[in-house]
Amino acid sequence: MSPSDRPDFTQIDAWGLRHLGAVRQENQDHFFVGALARGGVVVDESSVRIPGVEIREPDPTVERLASLAVVADGVGGRAGGEEASRTVVQGLVRAVAEAFEESLDADTDDPDAISRLLQEAALACHETLRSSGRESGKAPATTVTLFLGLWPQAYLLQVGDSRCYIFRNDHLQQISRDQTWAQDLVDSGALSRTSAETSRWSGILSSAVGGENATPEVTRIVRDWGNVVLLCSDGLTKHVSDELIEERIRSMTSSRQLSERLLEDALEGGGSDNIAIVVGRTRAPG
Q1: pTM
Q2: In the predicted model, is pLDDT for residue 1 greater than 50?
Q3: Measuring CA to CA, which of 4, 66, 111, 206 is 20 to 30 A from 11?
């Protein structure tokens, strides 16, 4: 895939936001949405600063080599959840940016190298949080979902239960797999998918960055023009069904409009948790 085949600045529509919700006293969700560029990182929207990398402002003259989006949800009930999610978003963006600057490029045909990069970066963040927890006496942990969009390939990194959806061929598909006890029971046949949604095990993570166990999963995806990608914390999916998300995407006018509409839906549904949403799409040429 040559650089000229990639979506240019005018064909990228991306947005991200986060909200405290209606109940929580602290926002432990963080997000980043932007791109890798030669010589730095383009930031479209972000709830965190990214120290240690050159920041490029969104500009039509900047060649975007790859899209990058991250959502992290600090584990509720644990001290340091906000710090954990912030640290992991910063660490992953920095690790991916440095790897592409040093040895990889957006035309790499080695998917194993990309998968290793993402898994190793997540495990490095895991060790950072575990070390921090031992020193402070706290146990900071977070979920994380990262989308690295090359063209036409993309890679999804998943730890925890923050989700990634793709809308394509007029259908919404959940790409990520919830790393929860409930999902483990569904996979083993001990629990139905319908029962899992209301199960007491649905909110218990089987894997988290900084937790007792972190199992980074990487999935390779093929994209096409017009696909819509949604990353979100469970503050959205607790209150907004997949069917309603699909309906909202069908009527979307922009990534910002969709993000704000989904946020309204989550708040109207109760807003019991922090909410983080990132939306990205590629507009077809012409």
Answers
A1: 0.93
A2: no
A3: 111
